Amino acid sequence: MPDTAALSDELVFLPLGGCGEIGMNLNAYGYGPAHSRHWILVDVGVTFGGLDTPGVELICADPAYLIGEQIDAVFLTHAHEDHIGAIGLLYPLLRTRAPIYATPFTAELARNKLQERGVDTRALKTLSLEATVQAGPFSVRYVTLTHSIPEPNALAIETPAGLILHTGDWKIDPEPLIGARTDIEGLTALGDRGVLAMICDSTNVFESGESGSEDTVRKGLIELVAKQTGAVAVTTFASNVARVRSIIEAANAADRSVCLVGRSMHRITSAAKAVGILPANLEFVDESEAGFVPRENILYLCTGSQGEQNAALSRIARGDHRHVSLGEDDTVIFSSRLIPGNETQVYGLQNALAEQGIRIITPRMVPEPIHVSGHPCRDELRRMYQWVRPRIAVPVHGERRHIMEHAAYAKSLQVPQSITPRNGSLIRLAPGNAEILDEVPSGRLMLDGGRLVPEGAEGLIERKRLSYSGIIFATLSLDDTGAVVDGPVVAVKGLSETDGRTADESLEPLEVAATRAVEGMKRKDRLEDEVVERVVGRALRKACEAEFGLRPLIEVIVLRS
Fold first, then answer.
1. Is pLDDT at 2 greater than 70 in this prediction?
2. Could you read off the pLDDT of 349-408 as tens digits, one per residue?
């Protein structure tokens, strides 16, 4: 008789973040019957709040579907924030004691994430490069790739139903400067064995050619920094330790000392020193002493390439950094790309620098490369598919347009089947043809101050409305018979007079409307606070729209004497 339990076993893939956006990666693989699956998680990342989420700094995927499930392990592919940034926030929510696996540099930074949130770090297990881990029915081997951060890894995931390659973030860099080259031999060997599915980075699928090498950037930076007079500031992604090292080399070649400016720069370089990626004796000029170094002999290595409000370069541009200032004859070099969506902040930052007479240099302004992407362009994707030869392509790490284009490109490369997941797509990879079985609950959690709340939280909705239209307060005092003792008195926040003052005289029509609304109520209705609040609120809403053309939040406060 056939084993009916074995026949019901399925291998499924579930992205809860990273399909529909670039960032916030949270992926799960399950094996077993639908009612009793074993799971492993791959990456637990964040994305960042913006102008449409006032007060929210970090956003992460909602793992609610996995709470209470049998999670055998969590694997981290590399140390970028969109892959590890939520580990301290979400691991406690999962109610699991599953080990968290990472290679040394990633583990060093993940440990900090756990400690920041008060999470016990004993679950974190540091692996050697190319290690193999058994986790329930999954055997997971780390495969060396190249990217824009030390120790990027793909995961070769062995299951009873077939072999999966989860690429994480990658590119093909022939001279990565830090770490080993892409393990082409290992990837080809996987392809020879037979790969059921490849879950693959889609970020640069619209870009032809190849992403370029860090070695060419090193040469470009050395040449560019040597030409500058006055102080030089270079801004880049702090996590790109190879780039950081190239900038240090460029400074040394130009007889400049390096000053790190920004928390992330200090955090990443400390982690790189701790695991031997950067020399332990590497020294930098302290911010408080950099001002005493001649301008032509200093290079500031800064965070803030994306115009982040509180990052080092923005504070320098505003002139409110405690120790660092720039002026005429100084230069700021952007060794970074402009991430779509950050245009307003970055151009605002550059304008603020230009206003002070500071020269700005971006990658498009110079003949030699001073930045290359960390993600694969089309030629690199083609080579990866030629090595791995999966039966199923599952594009992830992209917006919808990236995922759809990647799926079409994989088919053009003779991959038999492509699946285009959304966050929450429960995909059966085996047995049989790959298909989306279900769309499970998924969503976002917002870090609102010190607590995680769902993206539709009423407080967040109110805050957004406050940012658009302000708020009206109306206070009135009624006695036990419903007679008006005082008020209504109207006050506002976020509304202005035409001369720019906070609204004052213009509130008179609002007070008149609120008074008439109360006077028009029956005495018995005035005995019910909720009724009074509703009637007065409706009158204020109409009056405010007529007077200001806005529909602010309205708060009616009823006092009883």
1. no
2. 999 999 999 999 999 999 999 999 999 999 999 999 999 999 999 999 999 999 999 999
- Token pair, residue 112, equals 């900090």
Cα 39 versus chain centre, distance: 24
Q: What is the mean pLDDT of the chain?
A: 94
This prediction has a pTM of 0.90
Query: Which is nearest to 26 in space by CA: 70, 68, 119, 89?
Result: 89
Q: Which of 28, 8, 15, 40 is nearest to 139 (CA)?
A: 40
Is 526:532 a contact under the CB 8 Å cutoff?
A: yes
- Specify whether the CB–CB gap between 361 and 220 falls below 8 A: no
Cα 31 from Cα 138, distance rounded (Å): 8
Encoded tokens for 476? 């009135």
Identify whether the C-beta of residue 402 lies closer than 8 Å to the C-beta of residue 410: no
Alpha-carbon 105 to chain mean position: 19
Residue 439: CB atoms within 10 Å: 12
Burial of 486 (0-12, 13-18, 19+ CB in 10 A): exposed
Nearest to 389 by CA among 201, 161, 202, 191: 191
The amino acid at residue 47 is: T
CA distance 307 to 383: 35
Q: Which residues contact 178 (CB under 8 A, 6 or more apart)?
A: 150, 214, 241, 242, 245, 277
- Dihedral (Cα; 345, 349, 352, 358), 10-degree rounding: -160
Q: What is residue 477's three-state secondary structure?
A: strand
The helix (H) or strand (E) run that includes residue 80 is: none
Dist. CA 492–CA 470, nearest whole Å:
7
SS3 labels along 319-338: CCCCCCCCCCCCEEEECCCC
List, for residues 29-65, the tens digit of each pLDDT value.
999 999 999 999 999 999 988 778 888 989 999 999 9
Quote the CA–CA distance of 161 and 186 in Å, as a whole number: 21
Structure tokens at 384: 């990866």
Distance from C-alpha of 551 to C-alpha of 165, rounded to nearest angstrom:
52
Q: How many Å apart are CA 298 and CA 455, to the nearest integer?
A: 45
Alpha-helix runs per DSSP H in 72-228: 81-84, 87-90, 104-116, 184-193, 214-226
DSSP, residue by residue, 159-188: ETTEEEEE--S-B--S--SSSPPP-HHHHH
pLDDT at 51: 75
Across 270-325, where does the E strand assignment appear? Answer: 298-302
